[in-house]
Design a protein that fits this description.
The protein is mainly alpha-helical and 445 residues long. It folds into 2 domains: 184 residues, MFS general substrate transporter like domains (Growth Hormone, Chain: A, Up-down Bundle), CATH 1.20.1250; 212 residues, Up-down Bundle (Growth Hormone, Chain: A). It is 77% helix and 0% strand. The protein is built from 16 helices and no strands. Helix 4 packs antiparallel against helix 5.
Length: 445
């Protein structure tokens, strides 16, 4: 394979002034997330003195509240406008994270982590809607791909800084880093203020009868997306390191190299891998290919068991490279379907539904992979491969069903004109607004 480095460099360049604003905002937010991922749990355990079981319980409760808040936050975004809501959620999350440093016990810990998680979920829905309202349909997936590359850079920088704090193991340093993270969240929210106000904010309250939970085809697409989420981040960060340590003869240090491969390929190739997934058909194809590749990576990982060290290492490296390709295709396909199947006046709640499904998938993956893959060995990998393959292969048919269901919807606009029938026409802006791009939730995104 010949790599076109000039094309890669073009992919890394922000394509418009609005995207540059969102990229800087994304970078600040994801550096802050890197801080939190690195130090927050150990801060609560070591500096505050909360035992690990209660910290785990609090984090779980916060995650559940974030899931429940995703769709209502999307409704709020549709009502108030995605830009205004993005700013508000960013500021609120920053204040909550700064309050981490003031935590003195379990009750205050639970309050701040719950508030932060809810604001994070709300911000993800609003930022997803922001890109839909600011860009024509053909440009949205590329925008999300570019911003996903920024997310990987930001997380890497943030976790590296967090690792330095962990080496010092100082409560004062933990608190300083948490306050810095809160300030970055606030700054990331405020950076969105120069962006044009979303059309939804000017249009007033959207049709209150519209409810994403009654859109059965879209909900099924979101569920299939959650199935594929089982094979993305948590599979790599939870199941794989335990598998390497307990089921293979490969050195545990190899895992750091696999993470580097994943991050570097996401930064360099996410935009390139997203090409062709700009509409419903392209997004469905990307999801199908993602399911196939994720299943293949599971087979590669399964082959590493019981092999000589070098054979196991080769299987793991090949599996990691196949995995990241499947992961990037899944991201592109999920962005396309979540945008193109959403009505133009309800991107917030539809992004909230997709985020909810992704959070559920990410939440169940650690326990599921530990029980099935680590517990069963290579048959567990093959079971996961079958689940991921089925999810990917089923997506195109379900996406076509969802697209057909939109073709028969022609609700009247307030002025008496009919709204366009197709999902793509629904999403197109009435007039050019510039090239705005927003990040994914999702990180979760």
């Amino acid at each position: 394979m010949v790599i076109n480095f000039a094309a890669l460099l073009r992919d890394l360049k922000p394509p418009s002034p609005v995207v540059r604003v969102l990229a800087v905002s994304n970078l600040a937010r994801t550096v802050a997330n890197g801080f939190l991922l690195s130090v927050s749990v150990l801060f609560f355990i070591r500096a505050v003195g909360i035992d690990s079981a209660r910290v785990g319980l609090g984090m779980t409760l916060a995650a559940v509240l974030a899931m429940l808040a995703s769709i209502p936050a999307g409704h709020l975004s549709d009502w108030l406008g995605s830009r205004n809501t993005s700013v508000a959620f960013g500021i609120a999350q920053g204040i909550a994270v700064c309050a981490y440093a003031l935590t003195g016990g379990f009750v205050s810990f639970l309050a701040v982590v719950a508030l932060s998680a809810v604001m994070d979920a709300g911000g993800a829905a609003a930022r997803g809607a922001l890109i839909a309202e600011a860009l024509p349909p053909a440009e949205r997936v590329r925008a999300r791909a570019y911003l996903q590359s920024v997310i990987n850079v930001g997380l890497s920088v943030g976790t590296l800084a967090g690792a330095i704090a962990l080496a010092a193991d100082s409560g004062a340093l933990y608190r300083g880093l948490l306050v810095a993270a809160g300030a970055l969240f606030v700054a990331a929210g405020l950076m969105c203020l120069p962006l044009p106000a979303a059309r939804a904010a000017a249009a007033g309250r959207p049709d209150e009868r519209r409810n994403v939970l009654r859109d059965t085809p879209f909900v099924v697409v979101a569920v299939l997306n959650a199935v594929l989420v089982l094979g993305t981040d948590a599979l790599l960060t939870v199941a794989l390191p335990i598998w390497i340590a307990e089921r293979t003869d490969a050195p545990v240090s190899l895992y750091a190299g696999l993470i580097f491969i994943n991050t570097a390929m996401c930064v360099l190739f996410q935009v390139r891998m997203s090409k062709g997934a700009e509409d419903i058909a392209g997004g469905a194809r990307a999801m199908r290919r993602s399911g196939i590749l994720l299943a293949l990576c599971c087979a590669c990982f399964a082959l590493s068991a019981g092999q000589p060290t070098w054979v196991a290492a080769v299987c793991l490296v090949v599996g990691a490279m196949v995995h990241v390709c499947g992961e990037m295709l899944h991201s592109a396909g999920s962005w396309a379907l979540s945008y193109e199947l959403a009505p133009a006046d309800a991107h917030g709640q539809y992004q909230g539904m997709f985020n909810l499904a992704q959070r559920v998938g990410a939440a169940v993956t650690p326990a599921l992979t530990t029980a099935v893959i680590i517990g069963w060995g290579w048959p567990g990998w093959l079971l996961f491969a079958g689940i991921l393959l089925a999810g990917g292969l089923a997506t195109p048919a379900v996406a076509r069903w969802a697209e057909r269901s939109r073709a028969v919807e022609t609700p009247e606009e307030p002025g008496g004109s009919e709204r366009p029938a197709s999902a793509t026409q629904h999403a197109a802006p009435a007039q050019p607004t510039g090239s705005a791009k927003s990040d994914q939730p999702a990180e979760v995104a």
